[in-house]
## 1
Amino acid sequence: MSQIVLLVSGPNLNLLGDREPEVYGTDSLDDHVAAAAAVAERCGLVVEHHQSNDEAVIIDCIQQARRRCAAIIINPGAFTHYSWAIHDALAAFEGPVVELHLSNPNAREPWRHTSVVSPVATGTIVGFGGHGYELAVEAVSRLLAR
Ligand code: DQA
């Protein structure tokens, strides 16, 4: 049976393609999920995607991945910068965690320079736009093959 990679998308990412296209590009979230799923299939993995604007739903989703999913790829949106509850949920997950951002938050407003998720991520992929989704799945595949 294929290992499951949980892909979590945080607030406002449901608007991708329409929202600030000069920052986040014109592809929709469905386009990014499809790209991630295609790479996953080549790697013998399966992507399970959840998007929510609600912090509690994201935390439940991460908790339900424990002992069920092999890895987590998460773009927490603005929760990146202040959700210690998402930090704690990820800390309780036993597998690799990849933090993913379309833009490079470090090159933007100062309040985006802090990530409370990075300390519990195995690694972080930022600034590569939609390509980051494919890179994240490749990174997870390598980590799981170790
Ligand atoms: C983002 C960066 C965050 O700062 C922002 O709040 C987002 C998107 C990104 O993918 O670049 O919603 O996570």
Note: The mean pLDDT is 97.
## 2
Amino acid sequence: MSASSAKARKPVARTGSSPIVKDITDVASQYSGFDNHEKVLLGRDDDRGLTAIIAIHDTTLGRALGGTRIWMHDNFDAALTDALRLSRGMTLKAAIAGLALGGGKAVIRADAKRDKTPALLDAYAEMLSMVTDSYVTAEDVGMTLDDADYLRARTPNVAGTRIGGSGNPSAFTAEGVFLGIRAALNHKHGSDSLKDRRIAIQGLGSVGRALADRLAGEGAKLTVADIDRQRCADAATGLGAEVVSANRILTAEADVLAPCALGGVINEANIAGLHAGIVAGSANNQLLRHEDAAALKARGILYAPDYVINAGGLINVAAEIEPGGYDRARVLAKIGKIPATLEKIFAEADRTGRATNDIALAMAKAKISAGR
Ligand code: NAD
């Protein structure tokens, strides 16, 4: 639903040195991505170019943790919907991974290449300082490790930094996706070998490129696409990847399609044209709608639910704030459990005829209920 409410769009004037932060939970409740979110905040600082949404979905299991996406969505409605869907996904991700964390996510509506000034980040750090008790942020699309460090120097509720933290979580996310792809291959073909398997990767950013390196190292053949031509050229030169255009990658001939860019890329309109037998990637909210998983299943395509397979980064940053502090070996051991969780979901989906994301959702909800 598009609730382009005047309330949400009303400019919030900046009167002092801080961004104006408003609780827009009521407005957000009219949007289709809303799922009883606990709190949704809108921060505005017109002088410093900040329009930010912090969506706190569910803190039953702990403080909400989730990255900040810096992206110029087409309009405010799209940005708010994205924040709502992403934050819900974080709740499910933390629950399935067995973490004592809730789900939250932030979106800054800006072009990361053009608008991400120190002034904008200063204003955002001030907004974050107002929610230290309920929300911890980290990297996401458009937010780099340097940005996370910059914010962490100004506010404590930032994880995945070099300042007393474990750095960029993307390599850990990629590791979980890598293991998950092998689990999916094993389930579908009875072998997890990557030798000569072709993997189509959409997006060669922090996660996509690390995943590409890992897969190529195991003998996989890669087909890649990114809207950033340099990233494609680097993968072609460094990994021998075949490069296709951004609009051809989803339908590329491949054993596995790994969406590692933005959400909503698999939908009613393109499922019939997919060629890969497995969809397994890092992108959050890969399916436009929950029901799209049933359509994938009907076509015999095995879908690894995104919030299960891409939990590696969250597991890593969560370790920074766990009792006992960060322990890399413990993090890798937890990431090593992602394939077993996926196998349980795949087997249950086979047994019951239900879609994999139905099974995953039920598992996450059971853990949240138990936490209550
Ligand atoms: P990133 O910003 O580093 O990379 C995203 C890449 O996708 C960029 O190279 C961008 O140019 C490319 N891209 C954007 N639109 C595209 C399109 N239409 N076609 C092809 N390429 C396109 O982001 P990231 O950190 O690598 O995250 C990638 C995805 O994984 C996101 O959905 C993110 O939410 C999810 N994710 C990331 C982490 C993490 O640890 N970074 C953890 C969990 C989930």
Note: Confidence is low (pLDDT under 50) at residues 1-15.
## 3
Amino acid sequence: MTDDTAADRLTELAKRRGFFFRSSEAYGGVSGFYVYGPEGATLKENLEDAWRDRFVRREGHMEIEAPNVMPEPVFEASGHLDGFDDMIVECPECGASHRADHIVEDNTDIEEAESIAITDIEEIVAENDVVCPSCGTELAGEPVEDFNLMFETTIGPGSSSPGYLRPETAQGIFVEFPRLKEYARGQLPFGVAQIGAAYRNEISPRKGLVRLREFAQAELEHFVDPETDDPDLESVADVEVTLYSEAQQDDEDGEPVELTVQEAVEAGVVGSDWVAYYLGVAQGWYERIGVDMDRFRFRQHRSGELAHYAADCWDAEADTSAPGADPDWIEITGFAYRGDYDLTKHGEYADDDFTIFKQYDDPITVERATVDPEMSYLGPEFGGDAAAVGEALEDLAERDRTAFDDDTVTVDVDGDEYAVPVEKTGFSIEEVTEAGEHVTPHVVEPSFGVDRLVYTVLAHTLERDDAGEDADEDRTVLTLPPELAPTTVAVFPLMDKDGLGERAGEVAERLRQAGFEVAEDASGSIGRRYRRQDEVGTPYCVTVDYDTLEDGTVTVRDRDTTAQARVPVDDLPGVVADLRAGETTIGDL
Ligand code: GAP
């Protein structure tokens, strides 16, 4: 099967059965915006719940929900206004815009063109006779430019207050840090998570859910003290991960390697213990949600590829091509070590405290150099600059007390030098007792793209099987983990007569009241009804037949093995719960 047919099959199924489809099609559709249908919305919600369970609840972190629109100064501080760009090239003939690095990757052997400088990209386009993917016109000589990906809006009437749709949910957490740290009682480490929409005005949205203009992120910002806080590496030490490091990518014969998390840390392949910890945790979680780990790797960012805030970053990548076709790796999660970049920046730009006060075990006594300038001298001597000279003296005393060793001290105010007699500065050295210090936490960030995860899970669990119960028909099955399946159990009357329909309705209602997502289907043959449920990944089907009326039992059928067992209706909620939790199998029954 070619890559295209795999993607096309998924897209066809997604649209026909209500997983996802392009939005606003009644008005011609709009690229990069998708709707989740009834099946897809529940699948996405279940996936988010599984994420919440692993990365919030089990880690003991908190979750918040911040607005999607944020004012311009936030993005001045975060660096997105200046640095959140992709490379764009416009076709001189048809006017279509393209992502220059992507068309270079599509037309050359280069795999990660994002890290290449714009001028080099222009040369590569010219040397390789790259043409416009829309109309075939040569793009040699066309300028490649930076294009900022943020959607701009105005807050309130008029244009005096520009705002932006957040390009990452993370900023909604960083900006609220001064308050969030209070909820953590001022103690590091603590983590804050958020699941929500992010917006990027992508130049070329593509492949359904893979490159959207509005998408969902599940992000965790874990605030740590780099000096004293360590992750629980032992809990993931033996987890095996596939790592494709920068060195291996640079080596012509380089291949990803399999290491345990502990080996990766000891060998220095993953430089940050915190990042290594989250790679280990995430590995188990991807398995849990149905990612095929034979088509999965962690790939380190090359230095030119790193986001403006990241000191190190590993991406989780999944190959979503059909087995046997050329690999099509998509980034599903970024694990970044953001250092103190974000909190330092917001501390500089905003009027609040983005540090944590770290109390010492015992107070310490330190010498502090202070000044108390004689303004009756500075005023007449320096006029309007006297206050600034006073502040410069204070700064200098903190930075370099030896500057006050001579009779005169010289300070710089906006490029002008001012000499002040030391006796007029009130310079002194005092002993002070300090209870602690202000530290700017570092941030470790696992950032999951929810839509790409949904896409990957669908691509990896979509199977065709022609040896099912009805050999005449292909069986399309989504082998979704029961935890994620939009419907847990479907209930069928064998026939819609003799009271079987009513009895099936009662059974379905009983299961609903027990908290399961339940579907009912009375149309067509039982085989057809199984097929319909297999296609949307329903793990269990229950059939109500004439024996049910006699002895109160039903047939439960398992999606993956097609095995069946007879179960009393009274036991059904408990049995389905055990099956769903993996505590029993149809075989055991
Ligand atoms: N806060 C860090 C951050 O935003 P990112 O690597 O730019 O990092 C994180 O994004 C994840 O969001 C990616 O790994 C990807 O799964 C998802 N993502 C990014 N851009 C996307 C897009 N245009 N459409 C769908 N998902 C996207």
Note: The CA atoms of residues 166 and 586 lie 47 Å apart.
## 4
Amino acid sequence: MKELQQENKECLTVLKPVLDAVIKRNPNEPEFHQAVTEVLETLEPVAEKHPEWVAAGIFDRIVEPERQIIFRVPWVDDKGKVQVNRGFRVQFNSAIGPYKGGIRLHPSVNISIMKFLGFEQIFKNSLTGLPIGGGKGGSDFDPKGKSDGEVMRFCQSFMTELAKHIGADTDVPAGDIGTGAREIGYMFGQYKRLRNEFTGVLTGKGLEWGGSLARTQATGYGLCYFMEAAMNDHGDSFKGKTVVVSGSGNVATYAVEKATQLGAKVVAMSDSGGYVYDAEGIDLKAIKEIKEVKRARISEYVNYRPNAVYTPGCKGIWTIKCDVALPCATQNEIDGESAQILIDNGCRIVGEGANMPSTPEAIAIFQSNGALFGPAKAANAGGVATSALEMSQNSMRYSWTFDEVDNKLHDIMVNIYKNISKAAADYGMKGNLVAGANIAGFEKVAKAMYAQGIAY
Ligand code: NDP
């Protein structure tokens, strides 16, 4: 990956000093370097077209978070022992609206991962067309294997500090890996108690207390709406396709549901332990029971479907023959080798449900083989878009029906596809949705930053 980043750096001219400064100023942050490299590489023609943005330092400023908060999260486990985790909130860019981005609870969380996610979020949020800035947060706390009481005490401690930095008009966090409805509930309860106010400070809330219908489904459904629009544009669709979806969390589950509704057959899903292959098509009811009700491992799937096969280890899922691959687990889960296997097996359609699931080598392989490649910032923007719809409903003290939200989500995803295709074509890179997403997302934020002066 290092070699590829070096190569990319070499194709930069106007923006090379910006990337050099990011790498120098943020040592030991490989994921952040990777995300910035990918974006700057595609923004070179934008910098050439807009010398006024270069002169105003827009590129230098957009790669530096407005604020980074790192804090101690002490809590007491069920044995009475004090545990200490580290909490993060990266408030990356507020040019077009309050910071918005999820909270990730996973042992791998560190500042590099927070910054890569917060940086990506700026452009993704911009692409939704809604007024939301970019941010991200989380902790190295692992909710897996913890009791409800332990998760609650952690969430309350986490929010005790976070509450000082967020607010319905300032920064509105949401869920991400490890943060589902239970965690959002505990965090919201603590915020309300500390502030004595009932506001839409978090999204992904329960339906009884300010949540939006269709938020749970939004990222997975949105991914399929986006990919369906992209396929339709090429005279194709999900109908009759064989699909592989990695992960079995929130995004993966609803991607499988919508892809199936659109006529595809999903034959494999995974978790961090391994993957299941079910030639007859994944039984999503079984997956939901294993993951959402029992909070168990996907290996249990074979107890529900004896003809299915479980294989330990995650990477092998990409060796399964498919027409469409939807990586919905985590960053860098498809490397160059896996991408090549997918291509060799005839897969020509890839939609990123997770954030940055494909390494730069993998993206290069997909693109050089003419695959239809939907990058995360565009393809998985449905979650945050629906979070913004939740914010609107909270502000209005009103709730839309499931269909109203779902229709808006559908329109947003189709528009994102149209806008990024157009941006790619306008800059002479027709069909390059990676470039299109970066350019369309960036231009809106750049205009806002330019208008607001150097203080931002
Ligand atoms: P969940 O925690 O609900 O699910 C994550 C899934 O990915 C689980 O099946 C998990 O398995 C698996 N996974 C996690 N880490 C690894 C790993 N290192 N290797 C293999 N599998 C792994 O998270 P979400 O579904 O919410 O998020 C998935 C991805 O989508 C993330 O990249 C997230 O940032 C992104 N995303 C999420 C949005 C949302 O609305 N939720 C919005 C936009 C993007 P296990 O249970 O074993 O850990």
Note: The chain has three domains: 2-63, 67-198, 218-379.
